[in-house]
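Before the break, one more example. Copy the sequence into your notebook; we will annotate it together after we see the structure.
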Amino acid sequence: MSTGSNVTYTWDFGDGNNSPATTGYQAVLSGDNEVPPITTEASGLTTFDYDPATRELSYVINVENIDNVVAAHIHRGFAGTNGPVIYWLFDPSGVQAPGGTLAPGSPISGTITIDEATAATLQTDGLYVNVHSTDFPMGEVRGQIFATGQASYTYEDVGTYTAMVTATNNVSTVVATTTVEIVASIGSGLVTPENGGAISIGEGDAAIIVIFPPGVVAEPVTISLTRELSPSVAFDGTVLRVLIITALDSEGNVIDNLELNGDYTIRFRYSDAQLSDLDLTEANLQAFVLQDGTYVEIPPATALATTAVDPSANLVTVLADRSGEFLVGTAQAGGGATTVYLPIVIRGTTE
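Here is what the structure looks like once it is written out:
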């Protein structure tokens, strides 16, 4: 891009969402950056994630070799100049900003919403972070806030996307594209004996919803859902969805054999276009669960679970009694399944 100013970015992530990406910024803190410079062993780093759609600026402040921090602010001003405080980042009392103790090994984090003028100044390196201490009340470590050149965006579903960003300033316009492959989509939620729980990932015709009724679990557990782009072992057939359901205890450890007092429901949404692209039909959709390294079919009305396909709602429902890896698709004749498929097609709406 030719030299200019006031750069603006337009994003197209290839999934129909043109919202701005979250942009990374940082400020490297040292005494040499103070005006005038001071002699100190202290140092630090403040990292930022900025969402231009909401003007929310999330931050984490880390410091080293510093004692008795009394405040941290964002100031308006370029390198080599002092400027006014415009936002608090740390206040020990917790009144103006997140409180507590900012010290080595004890970072402070928070989120502020900046005004339009500050958002414009952020793009010109005209803001700095200043950390104040009892020894240096005017500031012990300081650093200009500048862009890291990194941006982040969260896709709602797995797949391959072409992402495009257009950068425009008062001189020229540059367009850059890249191919992004999302191989997993993750979500989690708490399930309790009293209330059960519902966890979902994806949206619309890519949504997967898992519903645990009350009383199914004996102890509170965290259920994690991971939608994968492909199965973890070879599957002789065509895959529509792959879902891994993992149970975690209160310390985050995986529960290998989750004991359940009953069944829970897995609902897989899909679209007619998705079936057409994969050359699948609702009449031959099947559900499978991974057991001992092999996908075992989940036919209707078995002790393992129940499977139903509802064409009117574009919905596959599986009644399951265990965690693990599940797959919806169609096995080739003589491969991918260990039972004979007896399809159930529900003609009513299942909601």
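DSSP finds two helices and 23 strands in the chain. Confidence is low (pLDDT under 50) at residues 1-5, 301-305, 335-351. Try to locate both features in your own notes.
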